Amino acid sequence: MQQHYYTYKEKFDLEFGESLEGFTLSYYTYGQLNQDKSNVIWVCHALTGNADVFDWWNGLFGEDAIFNPKDHFIICVNVLGSCYGSTGPTSINPKTNEPFYGSFPNISIRDIVNSLNILRDHLGIKSINTLIGGSLGGQQALEWAVMHPKMMENLIICATNSKHSAWGIAFNEAQRMSIEADPTWGDKSNDAGVNGLKAARAIAMLSYRNYSTYEETQSEKDVNKVDNYRASTYQQYQGDKLTKRFNAYSYWTLSKTMDSHHLGRNRKSLEEALQSIQAYTQVIGITSDVLFPVSEQRFITQHIPNVTYEEITSLYGHDGFLVETYKIAAAIRAFFKQKNKKRVVL
Question: Which residues bind substrate per the record (predicted)?
Answer without folding.
Answer: 201, 319
